[in-house]
Amino acid sequence: HVLLSATALRAMATNGEVAAQPDGGEKAPRRPAPWSIHRDPNVGDTVHIVGHGPASVLKVGESAKYEVMYPNGDVAVVDREHILVHEPPALLDSSGSNPTGPRRLEYLGRAFDDASRTIRTPSATFSLIATMVGGGVLSLPYAMSQCGLVLGTAVLGLSAVLSAWTLDMLVSCARCTGRDTFELVGHAAYGEGCRKLTVALVFCLTWLAQVAYFVLVQDLLAPTAVFIAPDIFGALSDEYVRRLVVTAAAVLLAPMCYKGSLSALRFLCFASVGSVFFVGLILGIKAVTTLGLPHQIEIMSPDKSSRSLDVVVHMSLWPQSFTEALYVFPMFGVSFLCHFNALPTHQELQRPTRKRMQRVLKLSMCFTTMLYLFVGLSGYGWAGHCTCGNVLLNFAHNDILVAIGRIALGLVLMMNFPLIVQPCRNTLFRLLGAMCGVKPFVEEIAKVEVELGATSSSDSMVMVEEEAPSAAVRASHLPPADVIDLSKGAAVDADARGRGMSRSTRRSRSPSPNSTGSPAQVHAYRREDARG
Questions:
Q1: Contact between 116 and 74 (Cβ < 8 Å)
Q2: Among 24, 48, 206, 340, which is least packed by CB within 10 angstroms?
Q3: Residues 131-151: pLDDT tens digits?
Q4: pTM listed for this prediction
């Protein structure tokens, strides 16, 4: 349905192009479409008025004058030059006097040329890679051993493609609404209920991520503790050592988890990616040097104790059990999870055209897929069908090279843990403040409420301030923008509201008690200008 709708929209917006004949003959000119972006607006069209926002055309007057009606029912007369874009109602999800705005517009929370957009394409790509790559990569060899080479590689590639597709859809939602967070996009789509649901889902996601972090930390550091201090930990059971390690990690990390700002840890992404590359290099060396040869590996028993086993690895092309293969499918999909960082990256990307953001997504997925495939095949080549859920558990405690990799990755995971606790705590506060009205949790959601403004009110006005494209802007190829103020009940300047409309139809409103001095704004651009 989506593909057919997109094809129909493109066909209706195309004029004078050529199409192939069904019989394979010569191409003939296509008949002009019933609507073209080059014609003047007609009665019933939905338009975007520069300086004001979306409206419907009621009447076409003389001297390029148009009588339009805004979503709140006010009527105005505007000049043709003040109509940024126009589309017929058939192309829009709107009806009557309450238009949502032309689809040929895209909305950015930050201006296209905002000075705060400082991230370039390589930095944005590395940011998403660092978000995806982490301790979860250690489970990919097990998933590959259950699926086999052919099915495992296919599922890994399919997971990358689907992740890139959903990331692109998420960015499209942000550009359709001008919202740059999960919470605000959910609010714009379905209202306050969806906003609360989104916050609850983010809380669950971050909470479960903390559980996974502690499991990985004890898997990595428990064998290292036995290797470093065998006299202390050697006499204890493996389960008791794991409990001591996770307890010590929780005590050491507790002070950082209570901090309000963790900007000092912002460079940990480099250490995280570096440690994963180091572990992948170790796996590759081990797998290549023992390929087809008998060697000794460690396996984990159900009681968490380990024992040695001599194996000669023979990798399978297909899974031995499709039920087990189906069970590990989510491991491939979750390994590409970076959606919660995609919108902040889009918000800070320089010149965020569609093509540039799509390039960032494709590069991130390509590099991550190659790394995952290398680690998965290397780990599978080392332990074969005896691969543990954490491939490093297949190595002996006294392997020095692997011990260094365990320590590096374990310390990075420990330092990353407070970065997961902070959003988990903040979302919990917002959820309690929104649903129960518990103080001081209500104060935690004040910033979000300011950003939401009057968008939840159907009869609220939007005040827009025109940014006419200057000659300097055209010279630098920056698209012209229209800035929409989303502050609740913001006062409308009479002169600004009067531009392009008759004086008798100007609208004004007194400031609301909930209005703030720093209103949220959305910058509107024509899609062809922001496409790149």
A1: no
A2: 24
A3: 898 888 999 999 999 999 999
A4: 0.74
